[in-house]
Amino acid sequence: MRRKDVIIAISLSLFVLAISIIIGIEEFAVVASTEIRSLGKSYLYYSYNPWHVNLTSFSLNSVTAIIWDYRGFDTFYETCVLLASIIAILAVFRGYVELFGLEIKGLSDIVKASTKIVIPLIVVYGIITALHGQLTPGGGFQGGAIVTVAISLAVAIYSLEFIYRSGLTTSRLVLLRVIGVLCLVVVAITPLILGVFLGVKAYVFQNMAKEDSPVSMPQFLLDRPLAGSIIFFNLFELLIVVSGLSAALIVLSLREVELRKIREVGEKFE
Amino acid sequence: MIAFIANIAIALYGVFSRPSLVKKFMCLLLFTDSINIFAVFIGFRLVYGSYPSPPILSEEPRTLKDLEKFAEIAVDPLPQALTLTAIVIGLATSMFILGLILAYYKHYGTTNIHVVREVEELEETS
Q: Are A174 and A86 in contact (CB under 8 A)?
């Protein structure tokens, strides 16, 4: 036992030393330089650039432009990872039942009344964060995380029974989540379908018109930049994140009675 | 920078030597977050005479000159975007790990891995 601790300490200090050397060498990681990499600079330059229509995404927020336009596939797979993790959680807890009609405990009336005021504000704020992702800091994932805070508040303060009564069971949430991913796919292949009908070239995950394909998603709504497909992606990402995270939250906070069946299922498989 | 390295050291110490799974998990999250902060830190830039601007245009640029000026003072958006991806995937895996820890606790009644080993040894001897 004693020797193991010493070995751990030595190897850890060596590892940290190695990391600090990597950080310290300026060629690998220049920290706080006056000049940024040319790739980052070109993203900054082209993310909202009406003078280079073929290269821009009409998004004032460069980070959102990178996430949903320039690196759209990456984010799509990331969304799929989130879906896979929820399925994995459901697989670990297979055999649970959602029981209605257990007694509602919850916290005191004062806390319940104040939560009733706060929850709509949180939800509206989260939706605004998602829908204004191309204009202000934010985006679909951030907005979804904010809305999930409202649901976790409701679970903690009103108990799980309240969530079930408002219609949010895990099966429905997972269904909503799958529908969200399908909507993402539909938005991604919309340019392709338009291209087929118009008889021009188009690409999957295409946002704005490119040099050899004139298909373009909407750029402006009235006088506000809409950033084409980015707003739709943000909207569906909000749906996906809210439903996925709240499904995981409900499964992780299931009550003892509902988990009793898990053991029986496990014994059956063993 | 020293604080960042100390953070990594504490996190790794926790992951390797704490017996409780929950504490291991917390230290793993700390480790992820330190790395993410470092990634954002790489994208930071120094602008002499003023502060660097976030990679978000506060208003629509009127001319190409405005845009060039913005590209001169804004920080690098790419590490931030990659960090966002890393956070989401980290969240997905950490939810799964949390589920596993919960299942482990339901099965053994504790999250301490050493206690579990002793229990198994006892079961083998008896």
A: yes
